[in-house]
Specification:
Elements: E1 5-12, H1 19-34, E2 39-46, E3 57-60, H2 72-80, E4 85-89, H3 97-100, H4 108-116, E5 119-125, H5 138-145, E6 149-152, H6 155-165, E7 173-174, H7 189-201, E8 212-217, H8 226-237, E9 242-248, H9 257-263, E10 271-274, H10 279-288, E11 291-294, H11 303-310, E12 315-318, E13 332-333, E14 337-341, E15 346-350, H12 353-364, H13 378-391
Parallel strand pairs: 1-2, 1-4, 2-3, 4-5, 5-6, 6-7, 8-9, 8-11, 9-10, 11-12, 12-13
Antiparallel strand pairs: 14-15
Helix pairs in contact: 7-10, 8-12
């Protein structure tokens, strides 16, 4: 490929309040700063309008009901012209079948464009669940087979993809995402609790020292078990003084958080904030908490878990998926049962609120604040990413 190689990253918009958006802007900023002689980077994103503070080219994603990027030919022409490049998707594989397997795309114009293959297809996938026999479904397998290069976030995900594609370990790369330790770091807890309400919801709500402050940071998706998290908090509130801080993207979607709060008797005194807070504010809010709950039923990337640990606050999480291999074992809740769900036959764990209460009690008794695992600090992790990007064009 002619240098610098056009590298278009497809994910959530860099201005969106999601983990996928964070990974995209973290990678794009480092590629732009450190690999500009090798790659010319741009992003195309869903769910936001972009941000002028980032120096690379950004495109909005215009889609139809099949998750097809309807203006992809125009975007690629504007960005790369006739030069061959790379399309890196940081997205769920089930949304990318049209891209990886052009014959399945119902839009004839897009299908013809994809069949010409003006770019290599690379994928960094948030594998958050397995199917029977530690394999993904046939449709997801077909999607993965359409990629020229695949990168996995966790060893757990690598095992599943290996099993699905019949690969050896040496044939598949694995690199986690990073956390900015300069931003997500511990702040004095007492001071943050005094300022907590003003930072979270814009009004004074000091958190007394004798109250246990529990944080839940998660999107409003079906696989984020808000029912489990809030039921656990309701049981906790019967045992001691406790307050909940909930941070999400929307209040009513897969879960009706206002309904759950009212039904469980948690409406009074608890704080709900939406995804418009800066990283600096989020770090202070994490620091104020005594414990946070990672309520995902399988995490592909799991940013809130490691943001919390980096800010000195233990995060309770179920022992399933890729996140546990990067966490202290004492913070993991054992799986009580399992169930299969959805068209992709995904295995999802079932947990007992009693086990979560026990874990919260243990976390609260930690003698010292938690720390970010050193290998997840971007300062230590970026050389591995840089080597992976360089290797792809050799």
């Amino acid at each position: 490929m002619k240098l610098p190689v056009p590298l278009l990253i497809f994910s959530d918009a860099v201005s969106a309040p999601t983990g996928l958006a964070r990974i995209t802007r973290d990678l794009a900023s480092r590629i732009h700063a450190n690999l500009s002689d090798v790659f010319r980077v741009a992003t195309i994103g869903y769910g936001g309008s972009g941000s002028s503070k980032f120096p690379w080219t950004q495109y909005n994603w215009v889609m139809n009901n099949e998750w097809v990027i309807k203006d992809l030919p125009e975007v690629w022409e504007d960005f790369a012209g006739a030069q061959r490049g790379i399309f890196l998707s940081i997205y769920d594989p089930h949304r990318m079948l049209w891209f990886a397997r052009p014959e399945t795309c119902t839009d004839g114009r897009i299908r013809k464009f994809l069949e010409k293959a003006p770019f290599a297809r690379w994928g960094y996938f948030p594998i958050d669940a397995t199917g029977p026999n530690n394999k993904l479904s046939f449709m997801l397998r077909e999607c993965l087979l359409g990629y020229d290069r695949i990168l996995c976030y966790s060893e757990w995900a690598r095992l599943i993809v290996q099993n699905t594609l019949g690969l050896e370990k040496r044939d598949l790369d694995q690199i986690p995402h990073g956390i900015d330790s300069e931003v997500f770091k511990p702040h004095p807890r007492t001071r943050q609790r005094q300022m907590f309400g003003q930072m979270a919801v814009g009004r004074p709500v000091p958190i007394p020292d004798d109250e246990l402050l529990v944080g839940i940071v998660a999107t409003n998706q079906a696989r984020k078990d808000w029912g489990l998290g809030l039921s656990t908090c309701a049981a906790l509130a019967k045992l001691r003084k406790a307050r909940i801080w909930m941070h999400t993207d929307v209040l009513d979607r897969h879960w009706s958080i206002p309904y759950l709060l009212a039904d469980l008797g948690l409406s009074n005194g608890n704080l709900v904030s939406l995804g418009h807070l800066s990283d600096e504010v989020m770090a202070r809010l994490y620091s104020a908490c005594d414990v946070t709950l990672g309520i995902g039923l399988g995490e592909g990337f799991g940013y809130p878990i490691f943001e919390s640990l980096a800010c000195g606050t233990p995060c309770i999480h179920g022992n399933y998926g890729g996140a546990p291999e990067h966490m202290p074992a004492a913070l993991l809740v054992p799986t009580w049962a399992a169930r299969y769900e959805g068209v992709y036959n995904c295995l999802r764990p079932v947990y007992s609120p009693t086990e979560w209460l026990t874990a919260i009690d243990l976390a609260h008794k930690y003698k010292e604040r938690t720390t970010l695992p050193a290998h997840l600090d971007w300062n230590n992790l970026w050389p591995k990413w840089e080597a992976w990007f360089r290797k792809g064009i050799q």
